Amino acid sequence: MTTYSSILSLRGIQKSYGPVKVLHGIDFDVRPGEVVALLGENGAGKSTLSNIISGTVQPSAGDMTWLGAAYAPATPRAAMDSGVGMIHQELKLLPKLSIAENIFLGRYPMKGGRIDRRAMEERARAGLHRLGLDISPDRLVEGLSTGRQQLIEIAKALTLNARLLILDEPTAALGGDETQLLFQQIQRLKLEGVGIVYISHRLEEIRLIADRIVVMRDGAKVKEFANGDVPVRTIVEAMVGRPLERMFPALPAAADEVTLEVRDLTSPSNSFRNISFTVRKGEIFGIAGLMGAGRTELVRAITGADPISAGEVLLHGKPVTPRSPIDAIRNGIVLVPEDRKLQGVVLDHSIAENIAYANLGRISRKGWISSRRLRQFADEYIRRFGVKGRGEQKAGELSGGNQQKVVLAKWLARKPRVVVLDEPTRGIDVGARSSIYDLIIDLAREGVAVVVVSSDLEEVLGVSSRIMVMAQGKQAGILDRKDANDVSVMELATI
Fold it and tell me: Of the four listed, 183, 250, 376, 398, which is most buried by Cβ atoms within 10 Å?
């Protein structure tokens, strides 16, 4: 069997869209059995480079070799047939198909001219088992959590028997246990000689998984580290091109007045039970826990998106338990959801339209909206929230960080009393994260009660005055900032 110093080699790769050059002569190699972390802010060129490798985008110049031979995949299928598998950050599963059907979509095992469903489900079950997923492969994807869907995407790639895997933010929707399962699988793949390109904004995990680090900025490769044991600060400064100041701003002091109170809240499905807490005016209240702990279900219920079977929600001491999102919004409680692309913005509509949708009453006159008023209103909040885009630009053309700013602008224009943020920086680069944290702190300074749900332990510790930890749908405890650290939170999360 022939061995190669590199599975994949790229030399002088360029990509232009008209006069705009987005990649500038990239040299990039992946060797058998190594994990190369590909890092950079949103817009650095990581996705474009990955899409070129996986056959989705064609380079404007440069050469690629695969296992020593010329490589120029014209389609993703051609790349897949060569042995390249890519797991996208944005989930691409079909909700009305089963897990097994999604895993083998386009390449169903056949027997006698028909799909061999037994073989398909057995192979799917084996892939799920490798990732610690005890779930039937014949159940529909519809209704599964974002984290479980992410693991199914990974199981799908593992069934390809690929020689190279590109993992784009694979842990963004995963909890601690699921992340460890993924890392264990990556170690097995390395032993089998599989090369892995690992893209992530969770920089602390890079030193756990990466053998080498490549940093991109503004379409160029600006730094390469020979191993993964590099201080996070050093990586971030290479990404942003400047010295990094403190990531988390100082927290303002909260008032004594209680804005939001949750009493004995319970869901009909038992995904959370007997949850009680308060959030004061100007306080940032964090909610932590492993995937499946019930965090998202809880905040969706508080904001009227999911039903409640028992308990109540109070605002300034008055019962306001919402029965719908409209109820919550009218009472000044808004949710910035976990999945901004599916639930936060309308991707095919403009930034201005997205901001306007939650504020039609403020910009309409006798039921009519003039384009001038719409533009003026949107431009004010685009400027106020630092959205890098024009009002007429489609929201789908923005980076993840700027889409999140549009969602925040849409709701904060209503001057809410309670803002609930579910995974506020999921899939967002370090530079954009810092600006999101500034916005959260500004909300608290203005006297808004803020609730932050995050799977990123460093994040929830960094922005919260107090942290409620959930485990298996129960309230495991509430920690003051001075008592909260990664150990104390994880001890409660694993009760």
Answer: 398
